Structures are given as structure tokens and as C-alpha cells.
Amino acid sequence: MATQRQYEELARRLSAIGAIKRGLGRMLPHDCPGGSAAVLLILDRDGEMRMSRLAELLAVDMSVTSRHVAHVADRGWIDRSPDPADKRSRILRLTPAGRNKLAELKENAVEALAHYLADWSDEEVDQLNALLARLRESFGDCRAAPRLTHITDFTEPTTRTPA
Hints:
It comes from Streptomyces himalayensis subsp. himalayensis. By secondary structure, this protein is mainly alpha-helical. The protein has helices at residues 4-26, 34-46, 51-58, 62-74, 96-116, 122-139, and strands spanning 49-50, 78-83, 86-94. It has a 3-stranded antiparallel beta sheet with strand order 1-3-2. α3 crosses α4. The longest helix is centred in the N-terminal third of the chain and has 23 residues, at 4-26.
């Protein structure tokens, strides 16, 4: 098992991933912010689905999902059709325009990563991919936060003094 120091270092390194994500997000076209891109990616990966399922996969509440869905639907990137099993629900699916937008987004992401990781070997990129996939699997459903017995500031453990 890793040591406290190793977990502290990992916490610091993971916080830097936010800066990387924001940098990649700034490269997205102005008409397709990150939430919209995530909707397109999920529908491409998992196929058509109800909005409730999309909200689960995005790990956000329905109001946020609704805004993302409205944004991509207004641009013609997805279709919202009545669910034959439940007329109150809608089935979301990518349109050809959505597939084209997603292809553009993927191409831009690959170019950016190729630029920033140009000095990495194929093996290092494979290793990073494998470790990130394993990290994601370890977290499972990120919406359910574990209950912690104490909070740390990632540098020193918090100690409780008796009252």
C-alpha cells in the first residue's frame, strides 16, 4: 500500500489535471463547450438513450443535463424523439451533423495531445492510458463520495483533540 506522502503527492498531481483539462477546453470551438462535447461523446460511445441515463453517465443532475442537451439539440447535433415506451420521455441520438462535429472535436484533441506529448514514447503514452483507465475504474461511480473520518489539507493529517 502507498504511503501518506505518496497519496499527498498524487493529490497535488491530480489537481494539476484540472489545469490540463481547462487548457484543452479552451481549444474547443466556441459553439461546443465541454458539457456539449461530453454529450456527443457519450451518445457516440453508448448509442441512443433517455436523458435520465445521460445524466447518470455525465454524473450531473438533470437540470445541467437539460442545458447541455438543449445546446446540442439547438445546433442540430442530436435528435430528441418521443420514447415509444413512455411518451413523456425523449430518446436522444446523434445526428449526422453531430457525428461531423464529434469527428472535428476528436481530430482537434488528437492534434493537441500529439503536440504536447511529442517528446513522449509510444510506451509512455500507452502506460499513461492504462494508468488513467485503471484510476477511473478504481473510482467507479464518482457521484457517490466515500465517507471520510477526517479531512486533510493534503500536507498534514488532521488530528482531533478531545473536547
